[in-house]
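Risk register update: the risk of archive-format incompatibility is retired. Evidence:
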Amino acid sequence: MLFGRTNKIIITFLLFVSMFQLACNNKVSEYITFKNPLQGESFHAGKPVKIELDIPEKLQVQTIDYLVDGKFFAQKMDKNAVLMDTKELPLGYRLITAIVNSGEKRDTVTSNIILTTDKKPVKLTYVLVNTFPHDTSSYTQGLSFIAGNLLESTGRKGFSKLAYVNLSTGKAIKSVPLKPDYFGEGSVQIDNKIIILTWQDNLGLVYDASTFKEQSTFPYQSSNEGWGLTFDGKNLLKSDGSNRIWKLNAQNYKEESYIEVYDNNGPVDRLNELEYIDGKIYANVYTTNKIVRINPLSGLVEAEIDLSKLVPKNFFKDEYEIGNNVLNGIAYDTANKRLFVTGKKWPKLYEIKLIEK
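Archived output:
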Protein backbone atom coordinates (compact mmCIF):
# COMPACT_ATOMS: atom_id res chain seq x y z
CA MET A 1 0.00 0.00 0.00
CA LEU A 2 2.75 2.41 0.90
CA PHE A 3 4.66 1.58 -2.32
CA GLY A 4 1.58 2.19 -4.49
CA ARG A 5 0.78 5.46 -2.76
CA THR A 6 4.41 6.63 -3.23
CA ASN A 7 4.23 5.80 -6.96
CA LYS A 8 1.05 7.83 -7.31
CA ILE A 9 2.70 10.79 -5.58
CA ILE A 10 5.77 10.57 -7.83
CA ILE A 11 3.64 10.27 -11.00
CA THR A 12 1.49 13.21 -9.93
CA PHE A 13 4.62 15.27 -9.23
CA LEU A 14 6.16 14.42 -12.62
CA LEU A 15 2.94 15.32 -14.41
CA PHE A 16 2.90 18.65 -12.58
CA VAL A 17 6.52 19.35 -13.54
CA SER A 18 5.85 18.44 -17.19
CA MET A 19 2.78 20.69 -17.34
CA PHE A 20 4.73 23.52 -15.70
CA GLN A 21 7.59 23.18 -18.19
CA LEU A 22 5.17 23.06 -21.10
CA ALA A 23 3.45 26.20 -19.87
CA CYS A 24 6.80 27.94 -19.47
CA ASN A 25 7.93 26.85 -22.94
CA ASN A 26 4.69 28.10 -24.46
CA LYS A 27 5.17 31.40 -22.66
CA VAL A 28 8.79 31.73 -23.79
CA SER A 29 7.80 30.95 -27.37
CA GLU A 30 5.62 34.07 -27.35
CA TYR A 31 8.63 36.29 -26.78
CA ILE A 32 10.53 38.10 -29.53
CA THR A 33 14.29 37.97 -29.01
CA PHE A 34 17.47 38.63 -30.96
CA LYS A 35 18.86 35.58 -32.75
CA ASN A 36 21.77 37.66 -34.05
CA PRO A 37 23.84 39.34 -32.75
CA LEU A 38 24.44 37.90 -29.29
CA GLN A 39 24.22 40.29 -26.35
CA GLY A 40 27.60 42.01 -25.91
CA GLU A 41 29.11 40.47 -29.04
CA SER A 42 32.09 42.33 -30.57
CA PHE A 43 32.51 43.35 -34.21
CA HIS A 44 35.13 45.29 -36.13
CA ALA A 45 33.78 48.64 -37.30
CA GLY A 46 33.41 49.01 -41.05
CA LYS A 47 32.05 45.51 -41.53
CA PRO A 48 28.28 44.84 -41.78
CA VAL A 49 26.54 43.20 -38.84
CA LYS A 50 23.74 40.69 -39.44
CA ILE A 51 20.63 41.56 -37.41
CA GLU A 52 18.06 38.78 -37.08
CA LEU A 53 15.13 38.28 -34.73
CA ASP A 54 13.68 35.09 -33.31
CA ILE A 55 9.94 35.65 -33.86
CA PRO A 56 7.19 33.14 -32.99
CA GLU A 57 5.80 31.47 -36.14
CA LYS A 58 2.21 32.39 -35.35
CA LEU A 59 3.02 36.11 -35.16
CA GLN A 60 2.08 37.95 -38.35
CA VAL A 61 4.62 40.71 -38.90
CA GLN A 62 3.62 43.85 -40.76
CA THR A 63 6.79 45.92 -40.29
CA ILE A 64 10.01 45.82 -38.30
CA ASP A 65 11.87 49.10 -37.72
CA TYR A 66 15.54 48.82 -36.82
CA LEU A 67 17.43 51.51 -34.91
CA VAL A 68 20.96 51.92 -33.65
CA ASP A 69 21.46 54.27 -30.68
CA GLY A 70 17.90 55.48 -31.24
CA LYS A 71 18.45 56.36 -34.92
CA PHE A 72 16.45 54.57 -37.64
CA PHE A 73 18.51 52.66 -40.21
CA ALA A 74 16.21 50.04 -41.83
CA GLN A 75 12.66 48.72 -42.16
CA LYS A 76 11.56 45.20 -43.13
CA MET A 77 8.14 43.83 -44.04
CA ASP A 78 9.08 40.28 -43.04
CA LYS A 79 11.12 38.27 -40.54
CA ASN A 80 14.24 38.01 -42.68
CA ALA A 81 17.60 39.30 -41.45
CA VAL A 82 18.89 42.79 -42.20
CA LEU A 83 22.49 44.01 -42.51
CA MET A 84 23.58 47.00 -40.44
CA ASP A 85 26.30 49.19 -41.95
CA THR A 86 28.88 50.15 -39.28
CA LYS A 87 31.18 52.39 -41.35
CA GLU A 88 29.90 55.64 -39.85
CA LEU A 89 29.18 54.40 -36.32
CA PRO A 90 31.30 55.39 -33.30
CA LEU A 91 33.35 52.70 -31.59
CA GLY A 92 32.27 51.14 -28.32
CA TYR A 93 28.89 49.99 -27.01
CA ARG A 94 26.02 50.45 -29.49
CA LEU A 95 22.36 49.88 -28.66
CA ILE A 96 20.32 48.03 -31.31
CA THR A 97 16.53 48.31 -31.15
CA ALA A 98 13.89 46.44 -33.16
CA ILE A 99 10.25 47.62 -33.13
CA VAL A 100 7.97 44.83 -34.36
CA ASN A 101 4.52 45.90 -35.57
CA SER A 102 2.08 42.99 -35.84
CA GLY A 103 -1.04 45.08 -36.32
CA GLU A 104 -2.59 44.45 -32.93
CA LYS A 105 0.48 45.49 -30.94
CA ARG A 106 4.03 46.77 -31.15
CA ASP A 107 6.89 44.94 -29.44
CA THR A 108 10.25 46.58 -28.73
CA VAL A 109 13.37 44.49 -28.15
CA THR A 110 16.95 45.66 -27.61
CA SER A 111 20.47 44.29 -27.64
CA ASN A 112 23.99 45.67 -27.22
CA ILE A 113 27.07 45.10 -29.33
CA ILE A 114 30.63 46.41 -29.05
CA LEU A 115 32.27 47.97 -32.09
CA THR A 116 36.05 47.67 -32.01
CA THR A 117 38.74 48.16 -34.65
CA ASP A 118 41.46 46.13 -36.30
CA LYS A 119 43.23 49.23 -37.66
CA LYS A 120 46.68 49.79 -36.21
CA PRO A 121 47.57 53.41 -35.38
CA VAL A 122 50.08 55.08 -37.66
CA LYS A 123 53.43 55.56 -35.92
CA LEU A 124 54.49 59.21 -35.98
CA THR A 125 58.00 60.52 -35.44
CA TYR A 126 59.05 64.05 -34.58
CA VAL A 127 61.74 66.68 -34.96
CA LEU A 128 62.84 68.67 -31.93
CA VAL A 129 62.48 72.35 -32.86
CA ASN A 130 63.07 74.22 -29.61
CA THR A 131 63.68 73.73 -25.89
CA PHE A 132 62.36 76.01 -23.14
CA PRO A 133 62.67 75.99 -19.32
CA HIS A 134 59.83 74.54 -17.23
CA ASP A 135 59.10 74.98 -13.52
CA THR A 136 60.07 71.72 -11.79
CA SER A 137 57.55 72.36 -9.02
CA SER A 138 54.69 72.19 -11.54
CA TYR A 139 52.90 68.85 -11.53
CA THR A 140 51.47 69.63 -14.97
CA GLN A 141 47.85 68.63 -15.56
CA GLY A 142 46.63 71.12 -18.15
CA LEU A 143 48.52 73.12 -20.78
CA SER A 144 47.31 75.61 -23.41
CA PHE A 145 48.84 78.32 -25.59
CA ILE A 146 47.10 81.67 -25.04
CA ALA A 147 48.19 84.93 -26.73
CA GLY A 148 51.90 84.16 -26.73
CA ASN A 149 52.00 82.61 -23.26
CA LEU A 150 51.15 79.27 -21.70
CA LEU A 151 48.16 78.61 -19.50
CA GLU A 152 49.13 75.85 -17.07
CA SER A 153 47.15 74.10 -14.34
CA THR A 154 48.88 71.84 -11.86
CA GLY A 155 47.89 69.12 -9.42
CA ARG A 156 48.49 67.71 -5.94
CA LYS A 157 46.45 68.83 -2.93
CA GLY A 158 47.95 71.90 -1.33
CA PHE A 159 50.10 72.61 -4.39
CA SER A 160 47.54 72.96 -7.19
CA LYS A 161 47.57 76.26 -9.05
CA LEU A 162 46.51 78.04 -12.20
CA ALA A 163 49.08 80.22 -13.98
CA TYR A 164 49.95 82.19 -17.09
CA VAL A 165 53.55 81.26 -17.87
CA ASN A 166 56.11 83.07 -19.98
CA LEU A 167 57.14 80.63 -22.70
CA SER A 168 60.76 81.82 -22.94
CA THR A 169 61.57 81.93 -19.22
CA GLY A 170 59.20 79.30 -17.78
CA LYS A 171 58.28 81.81 -15.05
CA ALA A 172 54.72 82.54 -13.96
CA ILE A 173 53.37 85.92 -15.08
CA LYS A 174 50.25 85.56 -12.97
CA SER A 175 49.13 82.67 -10.80
CA VAL A 176 46.53 81.70 -8.23
CA PRO A 177 46.54 78.72 -5.86
CA LEU A 178 43.51 76.44 -5.80
CA LYS A 179 41.85 75.78 -2.47
CA PRO A 180 44.03 73.33 -0.47
CA ASP A 181 41.45 70.54 -0.70
CA TYR A 182 41.40 70.59 -4.50
CA PHE A 183 43.59 68.42 -6.69
CA GLY A 184 43.82 70.49 -9.88
CA GLU A 185 43.54 68.84 -13.29
CA GLY A 186 43.00 69.91 -16.91
CA SER A 187 42.11 73.46 -17.88
CA VAL A 188 41.11 75.53 -20.90
CA GLN A 189 40.36 79.19 -21.63
CA ILE A 190 37.25 80.23 -23.55
CA ASP A 191 37.00 83.99 -24.13
CA ASN A 192 37.38 85.56 -20.68
CA LYS A 193 36.71 82.41 -18.69
CA ILE A 194 39.11 79.70 -17.57
CA ILE A 195 37.58 76.34 -16.77
CA ILE A 196 39.62 73.98 -14.62
CA LEU A 197 38.77 70.48 -13.44
CA THR A 198 39.38 68.91 -10.07
CA TRP A 199 40.29 65.25 -9.81
CA GLN A 200 37.96 63.43 -7.41
CA ASP A 201 35.90 66.30 -6.00
CA ASN A 202 33.26 65.92 -8.76
CA LEU A 203 33.60 69.63 -9.40
CA GLY A 204 34.68 71.99 -12.16
CA LEU A 205 35.80 75.54 -11.40
CA VAL A 206 35.25 78.68 -13.48
CA TYR A 207 37.71 81.59 -13.16
CA ASP A 208 37.78 85.07 -14.62
CA ALA A 209 40.72 85.06 -17.04
CA SER A 210 41.67 88.67 -16.27
CA THR A 211 41.47 88.72 -12.48
CA PHE A 212 42.00 84.99 -11.75
CA LYS A 213 39.07 85.13 -9.34
CA GLU A 214 36.84 82.10 -8.98
CA GLN A 215 33.40 82.91 -10.40
CA SER A 216 31.44 79.68 -10.08
CA THR A 217 31.58 75.90 -9.91
CA PHE A 218 29.71 73.10 -11.64
CA PRO A 219 29.23 69.40 -10.83
CA TYR A 220 30.11 66.49 -13.07
CA GLN A 221 27.18 64.30 -14.05
CA SER A 222 27.96 60.80 -15.32
CA SER A 223 31.72 61.06 -15.78
CA ASN A 224 33.78 59.48 -13.04
CA GLU A 225 36.52 62.04 -12.42
CA GLY A 226 38.20 65.13 -13.86
CA TRP A 227 41.39 64.57 -15.89
CA GLY A 228 41.94 66.46 -19.16
CA LEU A 229 40.07 69.33 -20.81
CA THR A 230 40.09 71.05 -24.21
CA PHE A 231 37.75 73.00 -26.51
CA ASP A 232 36.81 72.09 -30.08
CA GLY A 233 35.38 75.50 -30.93
CA LYS A 234 31.88 74.52 -29.87
CA ASN A 235 32.03 72.02 -27.00
CA LEU A 236 34.28 71.25 -24.08
CA LEU A 237 35.95 67.85 -24.32
CA LYS A 238 36.72 66.13 -21.02
CA SER A 239 38.58 62.95 -20.11
CA ASP A 240 37.94 61.06 -16.86
CA GLY A 241 40.73 58.48 -16.72
CA SER A 242 38.82 55.86 -18.70
CA ASN A 243 38.65 55.42 -22.49
CA ARG A 244 35.79 57.92 -22.69
CA ILE A 245 35.96 61.53 -23.82
CA TRP A 246 32.90 63.50 -22.77
CA LYS A 247 31.31 66.33 -24.74
CA LEU A 248 30.15 69.19 -22.48
CA ASN A 249 27.96 72.12 -23.37
CA ALA A 250 30.29 75.13 -23.25
CA GLN A 251 27.58 77.38 -21.81
CA ASN A 252 26.20 75.32 -18.91
CA TYR A 253 28.89 72.57 -18.65
CA LYS A 254 26.36 69.74 -18.90
CA GLU A 255 27.63 66.40 -20.21
CA GLU A 256 25.71 65.75 -23.45
CA SER A 257 27.44 62.69 -24.94
CA TYR A 258 30.75 60.86 -25.13
CA ILE A 259 32.95 58.86 -27.46
CA GLU A 260 34.83 55.69 -26.53
CA VAL A 261 38.44 55.45 -27.66
CA TYR A 262 39.85 52.24 -29.17
CA ASP A 263 42.91 51.05 -31.02
CA ASN A 264 43.54 47.62 -32.51
CA ASN A 265 44.30 46.20 -29.04
CA GLY A 266 41.02 47.34 -27.48
CA PRO A 267 39.90 50.29 -25.34
CA VAL A 268 42.58 52.91 -24.65
CA ASP A 269 42.22 53.78 -20.97
CA ARG A 270 43.82 56.46 -18.78
CA LEU A 271 43.32 59.23 -21.33
CA ASN A 272 44.63 62.34 -19.62
CA GLU A 273 45.62 65.83 -20.84
CA LEU A 274 43.84 66.80 -24.08
CA GLU A 275 44.42 69.22 -26.94
CA TYR A 276 42.20 69.82 -29.98
CA ILE A 277 44.38 70.35 -33.06
CA ASP A 278 43.14 70.74 -36.64
CA GLY A 279 39.98 68.70 -36.11
CA LYS A 280 41.62 65.89 -34.09
CA ILE A 281 41.96 65.17 -30.37
CA TYR A 282 45.47 64.63 -29.03
CA ALA A 283 45.70 62.91 -25.66
CA ASN A 284 48.37 61.87 -23.22
CA VAL A 285 48.01 58.28 -21.99
CA TYR A 286 48.78 58.42 -18.28
CA THR A 287 51.79 56.44 -16.95
CA THR A 288 53.19 56.32 -20.47
CA ASN A 289 55.21 58.76 -22.56
CA LYS A 290 52.86 58.34 -25.48
CA ILE A 291 50.43 60.69 -27.17
CA VAL A 292 47.55 59.37 -29.27
CA ARG A 293 45.67 61.18 -32.03
CA ILE A 294 41.94 60.42 -31.93
CA ASN A 295 39.15 60.81 -34.47
CA PRO A 296 36.56 62.87 -32.53
CA LEU A 297 33.61 61.28 -34.35
CA SER A 298 34.48 57.59 -34.15
CA GLY A 299 36.89 57.38 -31.21
CA LEU A 300 39.46 55.59 -33.40
CA VAL A 301 43.12 56.06 -32.48
CA GLU A 302 44.51 57.06 -35.86
CA ALA A 303 48.11 57.67 -34.82
CA GLU A 304 50.46 57.58 -31.85
CA ILE A 305 53.72 59.27 -30.92
CA ASP A 306 56.33 57.83 -28.55
CA LEU A 307 58.14 60.69 -26.81
CA SER A 308 60.21 58.55 -24.43
CA LYS A 309 63.43 60.15 -25.67
CA LEU A 310 62.31 63.48 -24.22
CA VAL A 311 62.01 62.08 -20.69
CA PRO A 312 64.61 63.76 -18.41
CA LYS A 313 67.60 61.47 -17.91
CA ASN A 314 68.80 60.89 -14.35
CA PHE A 315 66.64 63.77 -13.11
CA PHE A 316 64.08 62.02 -10.92
CA LYS A 317 65.57 60.28 -7.91
CA ASP A 318 63.19 57.49 -6.88
CA GLU A 319 60.79 54.97 -8.42
CA TYR A 320 57.72 56.97 -7.37
CA GLU A 321 58.89 60.08 -9.21
CA ILE A 322 59.94 58.09 -12.27
CA GLY A 323 56.59 56.32 -12.42
CA ASN A 324 54.43 59.40 -11.85
CA ASN A 325 56.33 62.30 -13.38
CA VAL A 326 55.56 61.19 -16.91
CA LEU A 327 54.79 63.07 -20.10
CA ASN A 328 51.70 65.23 -19.56
CA GLY A 329 50.96 68.51 -21.24
CA ILE A 330 50.12 69.36 -24.86
CA ALA A 331 49.74 72.93 -26.11
CA TYR A 332 49.24 74.19 -29.66
CA ASP A 333 49.92 77.61 -31.12
CA THR A 334 47.22 77.68 -33.80
CA ALA A 335 48.44 80.87 -35.48
CA ASN A 336 52.02 79.68 -35.96
CA LYS A 337 51.38 75.90 -36.08
CA ARG A 338 53.68 75.17 -33.13
CA LEU A 339 53.25 72.14 -30.88
CA PHE A 340 54.57 72.11 -27.31
CA VAL A 341 54.86 69.18 -24.88
CA THR A 342 56.17 68.70 -21.37
CA GLY A 343 55.74 66.44 -18.34
CA LYS A 344 54.95 66.50 -14.65
CA LYS A 345 57.75 68.39 -12.89
CA TRP A 346 59.95 68.21 -15.99
CA PRO A 347 62.77 70.77 -16.20
CA LYS A 348 62.12 71.40 -19.90
CA LEU A 349 59.25 72.14 -22.25
CA TYR A 350 59.72 71.14 -25.88
CA GLU A 351 58.54 72.45 -29.21
CA ILE A 352 58.29 69.54 -31.64
CA LYS A 353 57.15 68.99 -35.22
CA LEU A 354 55.33 65.74 -35.98
CA ILE A 355 56.26 63.70 -39.04
CA GLU A 356 54.29 60.92 -40.68
CA LYS A 357 56.54 57.94 -41.41
